Amino acid sequence: MILKSPLRQIFLCLVSLLIFSHCQKSASQDMGKKADVIIYGGTAAGVIAAVQVIRSGKSVILISPSKNLGGMTSGGLGFTDTGNKEVIGGLTREFYQRIYSHYDLTENWKWQLKSEYGNKGQGTPAIDGDKRTMWIFEPHAAENVFEDFIRENKIEVIREEWLNRDLPIEKQGNTIQAFTSLSGQKYEGKIFIDATYEGDLMAAAGVPYHIGRESNATYGENWNGIQVGVLHHDHYFKTDISPYVIPGDPSSGLLPRISTADPGLKGEGDDRIQAYCFRMCLSNHPENRIPFVKPENYDRNQYALLSRVFEAGWDELFRKFDPIPNRKTDTNNHGPFSTDNIGMNYDYPNASYNRRTEILAEHESYQKGLMYFLANDSTVPPNIREEVNQWGLAKDEFVDNGNWPHQIYVREARRMLGEFVMTENEIMGRQPVSRSVGMGSYGMDSHNIQRYIKPDGFVQNEGDIGVSPPRPYQIDYGSLIPKKGSVDNLLVPVCLASSHIAYGSIRMEPVFMILGQSAAIAASQAIDKKTPVQDLDYEMLRQDLLKAGQMLEYRDVK
């Protein structure tokens, strides 16, 4: 076909535009996306860090593997582990002030009167009226606050974008230049912040890290390492329970979810990690609950050990149905056999994305099966079954994920071997911290790590421990940065350098937010000074942290 002149000109023009558009797109992708600071991880720490970068006058791109922002803070952990609230400042306190403002509106109490909720908390009130802060909240309320932060600060967020761990990080010497995502997009920055729970960017950049428990001898600690014989909290078998199919008969075989491995000796190190779970948001309002249904691959035998616990007289099931507003719960693990999926996550930190997906699916299946078992199985005491059936998944939470939490509780994964390693000696005040970038105060808390058979032939859990520091403690800047000579433009506020037992306190969501803000302030200074993060002048950093409202030291108020 021969086009006449006017049509031919239009055709050629359209072809030219298409070619130009394609070239522009290809060139743009080749050049990559650029910002002063690239943050990987849409956790609460990642969002707070991004806000601080903008407030510091720098550009930022927040890359989130999840489409939902906020990590565990918006993922079901609404009954906040705060410790001493006086050491929570800066943007973190602003987050909880925004939560207060949300619940100050009558229309946000749909399923319950505010007066009915009262002021329940953990030693201190859930609502600090005089300080206009609220510490306990619904998942969607937290997620909305994070989305408000993003919108108000015009932060560019790339969602459902994953680091390509099979491609090398682009580096020049010790400086990260860029990384590439699974979608093929390149992200270039001057400073990078790894705000993930897993530490994937840190690991891909070649920074050394540790997984599991160090021995007590490693850092001169008392509470690290294997805890055989140590029984803390209420998450252990208080009576003798046989682990065998026929009680007392090893030849009959082992019940599910019990390890035959040698648990090790007290105080020794190992490569096991504490159990994960989903913090389900349940409702007992008839109009807002979804009854527990039977999962497709349900196997009641997986919960046979729990039947024996009930038979022995245990009746503490509902102690961690922690109340949050609107007749809902932040449902946590409690007792010897509960939502913690003990021993099923050991390979998660270093696992491929596909393997992690399998682990998450197994955890979800286990927990949904557990709730169905509790609601329906004849071996569950009738009074407990009756109460469980008053509950169900909250119909108005996690509506884009089948009302199931979008984030599993990664209580620990990789931990960087940084310039300074936080240990129980700093947490307990036995050794000083010279470069405080924030404070923590919660007890050193580890959930169970293994379920094993004792020499007497009965089953027991191991790894659960809780030791409270005498007062709030400081967190050293060196724990957020790699060792000098490793990577000079990376900050790690979540998988920071810490021993297992010290991380049991530091790993609380308010602390991650605090450290995210401090990491962003350090990033801004490193850009301005054109210096490695290891070479920042701490006094100058301290001044900017204080200006931003961070609490760097604690004085008892008499």
Given as residue ranges, the uncertain stretches (5+ residues, pLDDT < 50) are 1-29
Shape: globular
Number of helices: 14
Query: What percentage of residues falls in helices of 4 or more residues?
Result: 25-40%
| Class by alpha and beta content | alpha+beta
- Compute the number of strand runs: 24
How many angstroms separate the termini?
Answer: 93 Å
Report the radius of gyration as a whole number of Å. 25 Å
Provide mean pLDDT, rounded. 93
Largest sheet: 7 strands, mixed
Strand share of the residues? Answer: 15-25%
Descriptive account of the structure:
This protein is of the alpha+beta class and 558 residues long. The protein is 29% helix and 16% strand. The protein is built from 14 helices and 24 strands. Strands 1, 2, 5, 6, 7, 8 and 24 form a 7-stranded mixed β-sheet that branches. It has a 3-stranded antiparallel β-sheet with strand order 12-16-13, with no helix packed on it. Strands 3-4 form a two-stranded antiparallel ribbon. Helix 2 runs parallel beside helix 13. The longest helix has 27 residues. The N terminus is likely disordered.
Summarize, please.
The protein is 29% helix and 16% strand. It contains 14 helices and 24 strands.
